[in-house]
Amino acid sequence: MRVGVIGAGFGSVVHIPALQRVPGAEVAAVVARRAERAHVAAAQYGVPQALTDFRELLRDPSIDAVVVATPPFLHHTMVISAVEAGKHVLCEKPMARNLAEARDMEKIAASAGVTAMVNHEFRFSPIRMRVKQLIDQGFIGEPQSASFTVFRSSLNDPGGIPFGWLMEQDKAGGMLGAVGSHHVDALRWWFGEVKAVAGAVGTMVKRRRLPESSQLAPVDADDNFSVLLKFANGALGSIHYTATAAVELSDQIILSGSDGMLMIANDNRLYGGRREDGLSELDVPEPEAAHDAAFDHPLAYPTMQLHREWINAIRTGE
Fold first, then answer.
1. DSSP 22
2. Does residue 16 register a pLDDT over 90?
3. Which of 32, 72, 200, 302 is least enclosed by beta carbons within 10 angstroms?
């Protein structure tokens, strides 16, 4: 299965090395807007082709599938172009700028009969897979309440991370799309579909340093958000996220049900308890494949596992 990777940021540090560990997959090309980035990525990972125009990749009949790992405001055009060229697609999240674009992408992919997936790779982290297994086994009983609480400091300093698409609302920037999409996906996976939602977004740091400059540009994308969810079974969920905290705290996910509770601390430790027992740390068995795959980026391993599912889905026609 010959795959082209569009995007030399996350695409280079995560998707290419992950795909190169998937049996039956070959990374045949990498595309970046700037030629030097494409050539550096190709040289680093031994990819045969370095391109600057994604359309050139899509015209290549030997390419079976593409990974779209570009900023989200480009996803709609690139995914539809790929699908119309008969390529299978794995698209980064957030999927699109808005619901209309996402529906358009889904409809055209379905009518073209290609396999199209979104890279919610956190579903393949060992700790979150263990949580899913425990919930399905009835560890917490009937799900009743869930909360995500995250205090990060990455966007606290206006002179820190430079201004880019992440700070622009019309380019699908903002932390609700960048990280909130993962949290919503996890809660739907664990607790089922959502039937009602309310929330708010905020921009606390309103100006940020331009790249290679001391000048500041106005920011209109969110760096804080809160979401309240009501699930189809009646359970409630909340997500509170700030990227502008003065001090970082460990992330905390709490899942509570009629018979028990699970808590994930910092996405690397799992605690559980039932009824009147206190919480105690639970073992999270590492999949055998994890020992054979040493990656530089922490998201490369779960992305590799998702790639395996994607390639298998292409082969089986899902």
1. S
2. yes
3. 200
